[in-house]
Amino acid sequence: MDWRAVTWMDCCRAFILIWVLFNMISMIVYASNCEMDCPLGDVESLVNNFEDQYGIPIDHFGVAEGTRGVGSVAAQEIVEVANLPENVEWLKRIRRRIHEHPELAYEEFETSKLIRHELDQMNVSYRYPVARTGVVASIGNGNPPFVALRADMDALPIQEAVEWEHKSKSPGKMHACGHDAHVTMLLGGAKILQQRQHLLQGTVILLFQPAEESGAGSKRMIAEGALENVEGIFAMHVSSDYPTSVIGSKPGPLLAGCGFFKAVITGKGGHAAIPQHSIDPILAGSASVVSLQHLVSREANPLDSQVVSVAAFNGGGALNVIPDSVTIGGTFRAFSNESFYRLRQRIEEVILGQAAVHRCTAVVDFFEKEDQFYPPTFNDKDMHKHVHRVAADVVGVHNFKIVPPMMGAEDFVFYTEVTPAAFFYIGMRNEAIGSTRSGHSPYFMIDENVLPTGAAMHAAIAERFLNEHKFRTKKL
Ligand SMILES: [Zn+2]
Ligand SMILES: [Zn+2]
Q1: What gap in Å lies between CA 151 and CA 170, rounded to an integer?
Q2: pLDDT digits (tens, 9 = 90+) for 396-420
Q3: Rounded to the nearest whole angstrom, what is the distance from the C-alpha of residue 247 to the centroid of ligand 2?
Q4: Which of 27, 56, 261, 390 is buried deepest, with most CB atoms within 10 A?
Q5: What percent of the chain stands above pLDDT 70?
Q6: Where are the transmembrane segments (predicted)?
């Protein structure tokens, strides 16, 4: 070939030909890496998410090695499956069966049986019993990383006041906190994850836990090995504060620490007309109640929310008798461990001190042995970010809210002490059907349209966590 005869135009033509060929090959490779209906916008967000936030290398076709099944593409597939009409009907059926047969803490035998039956139907393996009635199931390749999802199973000692077809059939017991929905959504998540097992880059551990309302079931689950090797745990709670399927959470302190106290103050009983012969415990108790009110108003930082409430004062009976003893009791809440444990210490000091001033003795019980002592719940920053990102994919970025902390408490806190964790809310408020009452009300009800969204959130959170953790482990 005579190179002197090659013109500038020949060079341009050759360059254009190579460019066209390169793009054709790119399209073929791209199509083989992605679902045929995969919208380009999703791949772009996948690239941005991964390259920017995790430093995971993205190849020049926009697909990171092994990322199929991660991010918004996977979330859309998961949401579609969750909302299939037959799946929605199945979720409603399960939730209604659990709602009709509520069981209190550590008595969730029928609920547990239903869970195991559904897991058997899905061919999901599990361990039972854990913490008396609990079930620990696993889905995936059996290898690390391990991520846990938690649902609580217990009901409350409340008589249901909602008149509907599937009202509680157990007098005096009711799923008034939505734990029937929690179990259902986790079973829904299990079904989706089992169908996507081939995409899981590790193992999902499903915790069906007893005794959240009382008895700290989470502590027993941990003691019986439920969190072994787990690198992160997530749980969601239905909330009537937010519209159906809106997700809410926050990093850092989310739920208050909750403690209870009961003090027996003992003096010396006698005739109320001759007080000099008695040592009056009613006076000592009254002084204690007044002084306890100063702990928050005078000792706490006004910007650090705390509560001390005396809710019981029992003693005496006859109007002319000073009793031997009185019992006072109540609850205290705080959002930091420091404030929480300081309140505990000061409550004891104040009651013992006021008893001594009035020549009485006192014994204060904080029910620590009975597991009635829940420290504040903190969301790990990275785990919260994970929930935020997944929620943006599952329900849309505008349906995720940063929520204020609340004074309620959760035994989920004991999981957070063992492994990075995040707790979040899923709204189920629907004025049209009246699902506006907050938890623990006899009129509590949920909008069942939340169930497929909750199932999708569980599945998407776990699948994406495993994929991202696998990369991180690789990088290390
Ligand atoms: Zn509750
Ligand atoms: Zn609850």
Answers
A1: 22
A2: 999 999 999 999 899 999 999 999 9
A3: 16
A4: 390
A5: 84
A6: 12-31
Q: Where are the beta strands (DSSP E) in 81-186?
A: 125-130, 134-140, 146-152
Q: Give the distance (Å) from ligand 2 centre to CA of residue 246.
A: 17
CA 258/CA 209 separation, integer angstroms: 20
Segment 48-85, tens digit of pLDDT:
443 444 333 333 333 333 333 456 889 999 999 999 99
Residue-wise pLDDT for 125-155, tens only, equals 999 999 999 999 999 999 999 999 999 999 9
> CB under 8 Å to 417, separation ≥6 — which residues?
375
Q: Which ligand is located closest to the Cα atom of residue 238?
A: 2
Per residue in 182-207, pLDDT (tens digit) is 999 999 999 999 999 999 999 999 99
CA 220, 223, 224, 225 dihedral sign is positive
Distance 352 CA to ligand 2 centre (A): 34
State pTM to two decimals. 0.79
Handedness of CA 291, 292, 296, 300 (dihedral sign): positive
Q: How far is the CA of 421 from the centre of ligand 1 (A)?
A: 19
Rounded Cα–Cα distance for residues 134 and 128 (Å): 7
Dist CA 186 CA 151 (whole Å): 6
- Does residue 37 carry a pLDDT above 80? no
- Distance (angstroms) between ligand 2 centre and the Cα of 189 equals 19
Q: Which residues, other chains included, contact 234 with Cβ-Cβ below 8 Å and sequence gap of 6+?
A: 147, 148, 149, 150, 383, 386, 387, 421, 422, 423, 424, 458, 461, 462, 465
Residue pair 357/284 in contact (Cβ under 8 Å)? The answer is: yes
CB atoms within 10 A of CB 149: 27
Instruction: Tell me how far the alpha carbon of residue 440 lies from the centroid of ligand 1, in angstroms.
Output: 6
Centre of ligand 1 from the C-alpha of residue 412, in Å: 12
Whether the pLDDT of residue 39 is over 50: the answer is no
Ligand 1 geometric centre to CA of 206 (Å): 20
Q: Residue 183 CA: which ligand is closest?
A: 2
What are 208's strand-pairing partners? 135, 151
